[in-house]
Design brief:
The structure holds two protein chains of two kinds. Chain A folds into two domains: about 25-230, Metalloenzyme, LuxS/M16 peptidase-like (Cytochrome Bc1 Complex, Chain A, domain 1); about 250-430, Cytochrome Bc1 Complex, Chain A, domain 1 (2-Layer Sandwich), CATH 3.30.830.10. Helices cover about 45% and strands about 15% of the residues of chain A. Chain A is built from 16 helices and eleven strands. In chain A, strand 9 (about 310-315) and strand 10 form a beta hairpin. In chain A, helix 3 (about 85-95) runs antiparallel to helix 4 (about 120-135) and helix 10 (about 275-290) crosses helix 16. The N and C termini of chain A lie far apart (about 65 Å). The model of chain A is unreliable at about 1-20 (pLDDT under 50). Chain B has helices at about 1-20, 70-80, 90-100, 125-135, 140-160, 165-175, 190-195, 195-205, 225-235, 285-300, 305-315, 345-365, 365-385, 390-400, 405-415, 420-430, and strands spanning about 30-35, 40-45, 50-60, 100-105, 110-120, 215-220, 255-265, 270-275, 315-325, 330-340, 435-445. In chain B, the strands form two sheets. Chain B has a six-stranded mixed sheet with strand order 1-2-6-3-5-4, with helices on both faces. In chain B, strands 7-11-8-10-9 form a five-stranded mixed sheet, sandwiched between helices. Residues about 1-25 and about 455-459 of chain B have low confidence and may be disordered. Classes of the chains: A alpha+beta, B alpha+beta. Chains A and B meet through helix 1, helix 3, helix 5, helix 11 and strand 10 of A and helix 3, strand 5, helix 5, helix 11 and helix 13 of B.
Chain lengths: ~425, ~450
């Protein structure tokens, strides 16, 4: 086995050497079920990764029942088809297969990593199929899991980071689905039927995106994608998310006993597929995205020792996802740290990046591109985003070119459009 | 700017090396070479993608510190990014970023390690940068004065405001009375407040020498080119005798120890720590492998005993887990951790964890459970190959605790050979009250929480 792999490597290296940057070859089709499929064949390792994404994240929660999406996804693993929860877990463990996933705001994900041996992968795929299409939702399991979620929620509501993050999202999005968050009361009021209904309405073939990376051929991948989604209802047109209304500038201060203040600043800013994406990525690298070399890191951490962690990022989503700056600092100096942070942002919005910052940002973003694709796991993550958000199939191939094209003027203009002081929401938890 | 001038001549000859050498069939992968000054280099060729991970490991962690200067290993880790005569403060990060790389570092009880992930052509530059800061760190008082504040913020973030971290920190300070594992890696806040740049300098002089370091590279590289580059960059550095490391053996514990931490929180937590052996001789040891399997049977997967029995069937716990690390320079500990469900007490939680251990001691485990846990191990070995970083970590961690890096496979074989009887045997041998420490997080209502001062006033 090992010898065979070695030989394969050697050949691959020779062939691919002149095309060092040749991209990931993504095959795309629509399964008979209606699910869209994205497939990357790679045989360097005897493993297969499969991920199925649905538009079944928290944004799809019934308005008065935040938390349903999360609970639904959690329960799917806990009894499905002909297996109870222990049988699901035992069979996966026996196969050495790993089932994962969860629900974020836009997406609910079911993922599986399995060894590629035919007997192992076939059994693992069948478990995954049942989890997706035939979850049992047993009443006692539901009650237990709701109680566990309540306990975790109560605990997290004592934490300054959770308090800050909830206030931030509520402040940015208000009544928009992105702003809804489960409370102890709303979570306790969820019924088992809510989960069943949510599953039936949202885990449908029409919105399913299947991403497959690993040691399968095209025919096997086609069969797998169909197998995983054929038993799902076809599904109708899903209701569009409403547009986000930008909030007025605001500053929220919340008391807490912690030694450190948690500060977050931001606004709804960026949709997936927005043409300003590349300019914002390049600009944010210099502002607060570039790890240890950003302006925020230099001014807040290096020069003043105000914080261990300080960052800024854009999180593009179906509707406008947040632009966010975050830091934690000893509570007595929260006002000073906030002042410095705001000055850094204001200066960046006014002046934009310097030419040397532009060059450094591009060198890193383009230069580090191979690191974003150097494992099956990373390829899976990237391709799944392309599939779910409907990005162009050549997104990875053109990424470097699109980054290189950005000018300092583009960055200034894009920031002016997407980061507007009159809409910035600031949250300070535990600041003096 | 100054730095660019300094570095270019340093790096230029290397670039050529890394571009040309290639396609030599891998035979004895990984490859090992030791320089005359004692620097050990281990290279694992992995040609799946045109990238490489480069790590330098120093056998100097918090267990090598002295009381009064706890946390200095980690503070020095921060200072390693604050400049040499050739590479100014902050320039290290800038150069790595310019190379399209990502870098960071980590400190543990047993070691301090630095890494960069880069496109393969840039590996030579990384080797030059690491070699430079191994012996030429500036350690200026001004940079120290800023950075120590950052470290104190890190402590507030990760420990002072985290009730479970406080519990773990306090519990270890009770479980170990003599061995330096008793203090936290990040150090006591009071030690950080009184630390001076001289403490950092002393630490650096003591431990940052080639004969206390191991360089690990995994990636799309030719091992010979890596050895040549290492020789060129590190060859001039002199070996130096290391300080005597005192054993500081933890005396035999003679009775259960208990400690309670009160902190504002919602959920209580129970941690039970049993003293346990770790691997000292890969071939001859038996118990550490059996303990690893036991940890797997108790909480290694979704169908393991804690999850099945404590969380699902009895509904005693919101969560429960077992943790054991068989490789460490210092004494080992097998931890059981549980968070009781609403309406259940910490006493019931502790009794539930104990009952699971008693069940293994009395009835053993089934062949099915054992095989299930082994299946996890086998799959993990394959999955690990998907991450160059994970492969480099494994090599470094084995080396740093004094086990040969090649023993990864042998350890898996030893784990596969463990029998159900051996698992039952170690459950009987090590899970005794004489060597137990119990830590309890006693949650306090938020309303009554005193506002915490950020730091004791010293000035």
């Amino acid at each position: 086995m090992r010898m065979k792999m070695k030989a394969l490597f050697a050949v691959a290296v020779l062939l691919s050497a002149p095309l060092a940057m040749a991209g990931v070859k993504i095959e795309q089709w629509t399964a008979a079920s209606g699910a869209r499929v994205f497939f990357v064949e790679t045989r360097a390792l005897p493993i297969v990764d499969v991920q199925v994404d649905f538009a079944a994240g928290a944004a799809q929660d019934p308005a008065d029942k935040p938390g349903v999406a999360q609970l639904t996804r959690g329960l799917m693993d806990l009894g499905a088809g002909n297996m109870n929860e222990t049988e699901v877990a035992m069979r996966l463990a026996d196969l050495g297969a790993r089932l994962g996933g969860g629900a974020d705001t836009d997406r609910a994900t079911v993922s599986l990593r399995t060894l590629a041996d035919a007997d192992k992968r076939t059994a693992a795929f069948e478990i995954m199929r049942q989890v997706i299409a035939e979850p049992r939702f047993p009443e006692p399991v539901f009650e237990r899991e709701r109680a566990r979620s309540l306990a975790a929620l109560r605990e997290s509501l004592t934490r300054p980071d959770t308090i800050a993050s909830r206030a931030f999202w509520a402040g940015l999005y208000g009544e928009h689905p992105y702003g809804r968050q489960p409370s102890v009361e709303s979570l306790a009021a969820i019924k088992l039927d809510d989960l069943r209904e949510f599953h039936a309405a949202n885990y449908v073939a029409r919105s399913a995106v299947v991403t497959i990376v690993g040691a399968l051929n095209r025919a096997e991948a086609e069969a797998l994608a169909q197998q995983l989604t054929e038993a799902l209802p076809a599904g109708g047109e899903q209701a569009q998310l409403p547009a986000v209304a930008l909030p007025p500038a605001a500053e929220l201060r919340l008391p807490h006993h912690a030694a450190q203040a948690h500060i977050q600043i931001g606004m709804p800013a960026l949709k997936r597929g927005d043409p300003d994406f590349y300019a914002l990525m390049v600009g944010n690298y210099s502002l607060g995205g570039g790890g240890f070399v950003s302006r925020l890191m230099k001014e807040v951490r290096d020069k003043r020792g105000f914080a261990y962690s300080v960052y800024s990022y854009f999180a593009p989503m179906k509707e406008q996802g947040p632009f966010q700056i975050g830091l934690q600092t000893k509570r007595e100096q929260a006002a000073d740290a906030l002042k410095v942070t705001r000055e850094v942002l204001a200066k960046f919005l006014t002046e934009g990046p310097s030419e040397s910052e532009m060059a450094a940002a591009k060198a890193n973003i383009v230069g580090s591109f191979p690191l974003r694709l150097d494992s099956n796991r990373k390829i899976l993550d990237n391709v799944a985003v392309i599939g779910f958000y409907g990005l162009p199939l050549d997104y990875l191939d053109t990424y470097a070119t699109n980054i290189r094209k950005v000018t300092a003027a583009d960055v200034r203009a894009a920031f002016a459009r997407h980061v507007r002081p009159e809409h910035l929401v600031t949250v300070v938890v535990a600041g003096d | 700017m100054t730095m660019r001038r300094h570095l270019r001549p340093l790096l230029a000859p290397l670039a050529a090396l890394f571009c040309t050498a290639m396609a030599i069939p891998a035979l004895a992968n990984p490859y090992e070479h030791t320089l005359a000054n004692g620097l050990k280099i281990i290279v694992k060729e992995d040609h799946r993608a045109p990238t490489a991970v480069h790590m330098v490991w120093y056998r100097a962690g918090s267990m090598d510190e002295n009381n009064g200067a706890t946390g200095v290993a980690h503070v020095l880790e921060h200072m390693m990014f604050k400049g040499t005569p050739k590479v100014g403060p902050g320039e290290f990060n800038r150069l790595v970023a310019a190379a399209g790389g990502r870098d960071n570092a980590f400190t543990s009880r047993d070691y301090t390690a630095y890494f960069q992930q880069v496109p393969k052509e840039k590996l030579g530059e990384m080797i030059a940068l690491e070699a430079d800061r191994m012996r030429h760190l500036t350690l200026s008082a001004d940079e120290f004065a800023q950075e120590i504040k950052v470290v104190m913020e890190e402590r507030r973030l990760r420990t002072d405001d985290q009730p479970q971290s406080l519990l773990f920190e306090t519990m270890n300070a009770v479980a170990f009375k003599v061995h330096p594992y008793r203090w936290p890696i990040i150090g006591w806040m009071d030690d950080l407040e009184s630390m001076t740049v001289q403490d950092a300098r002393d630490w650096y002089e003591r431990w940052y020498v080639p004969n206390n370091a191991t360089m690990v590279v995994v990636g799309d590289v030719d091992h010979k080119a890596v050895f040549t580059a290492a020789e060129k960059q590190y060859g001039a550095l002199k070996a130096r005798p290391l300080p005597v490391r005192k054993p500081q053996e933890e005396p035999t514990q003679t009775g259960v120890r208990r400690v309670t931490v009160k902190a504002p929180a919602e959920l209580p937590v129970v941690i039970m720590g049993y003293r346990a052996p770790v691997i000292r001789n890969v071939a001859q040891d038996v118990d550490p492998y059996a303990l690893e399997l036991l940890a797997g049977v108790l909480s290694g997967h979704g169908a393991a005993r804690f999850s099945k029995s404590l969380v699902r069937e009895q509904r005693l716990a919101v969560s429960a887990g077992a943790e054991y690390d068989a490789s460490a320079r210092g004494p080992g500990m097998f931890y059981l951790v549980g968070t009781p469900s609403q309406g259940k007490t910490v006493a019931e939680m502790e009794a539930g964890l104990r009952a699971e251990i008693t069940r293994v001691q009395a009835d053993g485990i089934t062949a099915e459970e054992l095989n299930r846990t082994k299946a996890q191990l086998v799959a993990s070995e394959i999955y690990k190959l998907d991450s160059m970083f994970a492969q480099a970590m494994e090599i470094g961690q084995l080396e740093i605790v004094g086990l040969p890096y090649q023993s990864g496979e042998q350890i898996i074989e030893k784990l596969k050979a463990v029998t159900a009887e051996q698992v039952q045997e170690v459950a009987k041998r090590y899970f005794v009250d004489e060597s137990l420490t119990v830590g309890v997080l006693d949650p306090q209502p938020m309303e009554n929480a005193p506002r915490r001062p950020a730091a004791a006033a010293r000035h």
